[in-house]
Amino acid sequence: MATLPNCETLTLQPEGIALMITLNRPDQRNAMSLHMVQELSAVFDAIRDDDTVRAVVLRGAGGHFCAGGDIKDMASARSASTKDGSDPFRDLNRAFGTLIQQVNETPQVTIMLLEGAVMGGGFGLACVSDLAIADKSARFGMPETTLGVIPAQIAPFVVERIGLTQARRLALLGLRINGEEAHQLGLVHELVDGENNARAVITETLRQIQKCAPVATATTKSLLHRVGREPMDQLLDQAATDFASAVRGPEGAEGTRAFMEKRDPSWAADGD
Q1: All residues at 6 or more sequence positions from 171 whose CB lies less than 8 Å from its CB, including other chains
Q2: pLDDT tens string for the chain (272 positions)?
Q3: Where on the phi/psi map is residue 197: left (φ > 0), alpha (ψ -120 to 50), or beta?
Q4: By C-alpha distance, which of 179, 163, 62 is closest to 171?
Q5: Within its chain, how far is the Cα of 96 from the centroid?
Q6: 3-state class of 6 per DSSP?
Q7: Which alpha helices (H) appear in the chain, and where do they start and end?
Q8: Which of 122, 124, 115, 133 shows the shortest CA–CA distance to 67?
Q9: Are 187 and 132 in contact (CB under 8 A)?
Q10: Best CA proximity match to 28, nearest among 85, 88, 68
Q11: What are the backbone dihedrals phi and psi of residue 114, each rounded to the nearest 5 degrees, phi first?
Q12: Which residues pair with 94 in a beta bridge?
């Protein structure tokens, strides 16, 4: 595994094919400070090209996922100097947008365990997960407009996740919803009841990820993200090129041999 940065606001625990990341500011319900944003970004930078890390599991400490942005950071930005022409509010907000895009596009499969408060920026992070698992305790919301601000960086990702119609309702009314409704909207894939149930779902998910070739998985994720962002002919041309590379590559050769020999491929050797 790649060398991981030292973190003050996160705990990092490698576990098999996965890196477990815990947002660790429980006294603030894991509100996303600029320092946490920078540390989380550094972690995703460190593992981006590490194919031994095939999944990331992200959760929060103390029974909450993330309560949104850190109000203290906003207060600091209000008092910051703007003599050089920069805008500290813009820079603070845009830094989180950069992070959420980074998480969205990471080659690893991202699994998020959502408990307690999943608000604002936490809601946005949930929207870029590959698999979202919500405890029945989870409460989701986009409360920005009730605070006199806007969901500037998360709005595009919310629309992509649940569609414009539902994003309008949640964002413009500042609504809060429970895990059941989040599941109905397609924000959440699985509902669980308690830590043991959550751990069982995560374990089974990681077992399934292990059955899938890491490079093929990363290439597939990249393909899915390009849908709707480039002309279809161009997308399909590149997809065909990527398919040919996969077939001729080591994973394609190993997968074919394993199928013919009725055995698990090498990347799944420790799986079921």
Answers
A1: 142, 144, 145, 151, 155, 158
A2: 778 999 999 999 999 999 999 999 999 999 999 999 999 999 999 999 998 999 999 999 999 999 998 877 776 766 666 666 678 888 889 999 999 999 999 999 999 999 999 999 999 999 999 999 999 999 999 999 999 999 999 999 999 999 999 999 999 999 999 999 999 999 999 999 999 999 999 999 999 999 999 999 999 999 999 999 999 999 999 999 999 999 999 999 999 999 999 999 999 975 44
A3: alpha
A4: 163
A5: 13
A6: coil
A7: 34-47, 71-79, 88-105, 121-126, 155-162, 164-173, 179-185, 195-210, 214-226, 232-248, 250-260
A8: 122
A9: yes
A10: 68
A11: -105, 115
A12: none
Give the neighbor-by-neighbor strand order of the sheet with 117-119: 117-119, 139-141, 176-178
All structural domains of the chain, each given as residue ranges with its CATH number in brackets, are 10-209 (3.90.226.10), 213-268 (1.10.12.10)
The type of residue at 28 is Q
Which residue is it, tokens 């996160």? 10
| Pairing assessment for the beta strands 131-135 and 176-178 based on DSSP bridges | unpaired
Dihedral of the alpha carbons of 96, 100, 105, 106, in degrees to the nearest 10:
90
**What is the C-alpha separation between 222 and 116, in angstroms, rounded?**
31
The residue to which tokens 């002309």 are assigned: 231
